[in-house]
Amino acid sequence: MSEEFKEKGNALFKAQDYAQAAQKYSLAIDALPHPVYYSNRAACYLKLGEYDKAAADCKAGLDHVPEFQKPQPNVPELKPDTPIKLFFRWSQALEDQRNYAAAIYVCNSGLKTYPGNESLTTQLKKLQWVEKKEKRDMKQKAFAPQPQTQAIPTPEASPTTQYIPIQVVDSLPIDLMSIYNTPETTDLLESPKLSTAAPTHHAFPTQLPLMLPACLNAYTLAQLLKSPQNQMKEVRTYLYNYDVAQWPHIFGRGGIDADFIEEMLKAIIENEDNSQRPRDIVQSMKKCERFNIANTFVPKDLKTKVNEICGESL
């Protein structure tokens, strides 16, 4: 009887009627709490966006695995991939709820029982990457300038507020020259002593000059990618002409980063002189660990332009 309900549920699932399919799987579970029925209903709930129910079904299905591991008469066989699907769908439900830490824990739990499973390993790498990216985005957001939410008081609004005019000047006032015209201050400013006859404007540097290393490693590459935007074009040109064979060695087992791929694609667009060099760059990046995962976070329009340039699919 339970198998009949399951088959009807399978037909409805293929027809994309997920709500009705879930009802059929529920009838199958009522007849027999087999893990495969829980797994199938969890798949329906994932499609319906009911992630709490999907996670609960996966946990319930795994709880029932031990009682169906041994063959029983008139009972459907427990296939080896059913528990794996339960772990995988459970992690998917948690991922869709943005609970990446819990999803990673579920994947690791599944890999303890089924070490080396390709589906769980791929899902784990993906989750670790997404969690890392979210933490990085949250950190950037935390340090981003916040919009002014409180009105600045004006003299009209507050009688006690005094308006102080601000004047922009190119040099120090004469009466302050003597204070700053000392060996200590002139050494700090790295310029000759100020002269009252010809006052000099001292400009403090607001940006350090770009330093391009002769040899790259993971640390120096990470620092380059943090360069100010007005220096990034020069950085990209430098990376475009770097020895492409070194990328897999520089990134190592840690894997390539989506930000790096994005900058390299911009470099190809900016510096293309022929199709061979861009093709060599793309092929070298593909050899890096975790390329397929990182590549999913790269804007599609960039990949489309580079595909047109070098004919190498990304």
Global Rg: 31 Å
Number of strands: 0
Q: β content, as a range?
A: under 5%
Number of domains: 2
GO cellular component, one term: TRC complex
Keywords: Repeat, TPR repeat
Pfam families: RPAP3_C
Protein name: RNA-polymerase II-associated protein 3-like C-terminal domain-containing protein
Structure in words:
This protein has 314 residues and is mainly α. The protein folds into 2 domains: 2-138, Tetratricopeptide repeat domain (Serine Threonine Protein Phosphatase 5, Tetratricopeptide repeat, Alpha Horseshoe); 218-310, no CATH class. The protein has 17 helices and no strands. It has helices at residues 2-14, 18-31, 35-48, 51-63, 65-68, 81-96, 100-113, 118-143, 174-180, 183-189, 218-224, 229-240, 247-251, 258-271, 276-286, 291-295, 300-310. Helix 14 (258-271) crosses helix 17 (300-310). It is elongated and about 95 Å long. It starts with a helix and ends with a helix.
In short:
It comes from Yarrowia lipolytica. The chain is mostly helical and 314 residues long.
